[in-house]
Amino acid sequence: AGVAEMLFFFIDSDWSETTTTHAGDISIAGIKFSGEAAPAAPVLPTDGEYVKLTGNDCYTITAEAEYSHTVRVSYTNVATNSYQNVNTWVQDKSTGKTSFSVTLLNNGTEAVRITVKLEKETNGPAKENTVELAAGEMKTVTLEYTEEGVMLYFFIGSGWSETTTTGSGDVTIAGIKFQ
């Protein structure tokens, strides 16, 4: 079966032996098509490193346990360029590895910009990647590195921007892996 591109309504205009005109009003509502599949819900990774995220007061961190591989972070009135963040110590996990990946899901109703940063030492050189997620969008972020990281930061709605704005939302961080 193909996909229809148009839907036509021929209202009182079918073939007839006599030509007559008609007048009136109709309402067309509640059109439904059978066989339409609902969009698939994003599927988060069910494995990954168990981490304990901590963060600034503007973030509420919810996890199944103190250390978890899936963490939900809600935030309210976070300003861009404020560099508020949630973070975790990862030196024991990154040693001897060369790449890192994490899956991010925007559970909110507005787009959010997230910078993921793997820092070698406090205020030292780092690897980072910034992604923008539309409402409901999920992306996996990967960082390649040559020296183990010490801290992993998630700047959720708070990273660099040309203009300062505030935002609120909800993000899931899942499947943190060092390979």
Q: Approximately how much helix is present in the residues?
A: under 10%
Count the strands?
Answer: 10
Strand order of the largest sheet: 1-4-9-6-7
In round numbers, the mean pLDDT is 86
pLDDT < 50 stretches: none
* Series of secondary-structure elements, N-terminal to C-terminal: EEEEHEEEEEE
**SS element count, helices:** 1
Shape: elongated
Would you give an account of this structure?
This protein has 179 residues and is an all-beta fold. Helix content is 2%, strand content 40%. It has one helix at 91-94, and strands spanning 54-55, 59-63, 70-79, 86-89, 99-106, 112-119, 126-133, 138-144, 151-156, 166-178. The strands form 2 sheets. Strands 1-4-9-6-7 form a 5-stranded antiparallel β-sheet, with no helix packed on it. A 5-stranded antiparallel β-sheet has the order 2-3-10-5-8, with no helix packed on it. Strand 6 (112-119) and strand 7 form a beta hairpin. The protein is elongated. The model has no long low-confidence stretch (mean pLDDT 86).
Features:
10 strands; 1 helix; elongated; single chain; five-stranded antiparallel β-sheet; 2% helix; mainly beta; 179 residues
Explain the layout of strands and helices.
Elements: E1 54-55, E2 59-63, E3 70-79, E4 86-89, H1 91-94, E5 99-106, E6 112-119, E7 126-133, E8 138-144, E9 151-156, E10 166-178
Antiparallel strand pairs: 1-4, 2-3, 3-10, 4-9, 5-8, 5-10, 6-7, 6-9
Short description:
Helices cover 2% and strands 40% of the residues. By secondary structure, the chain is mainly β.
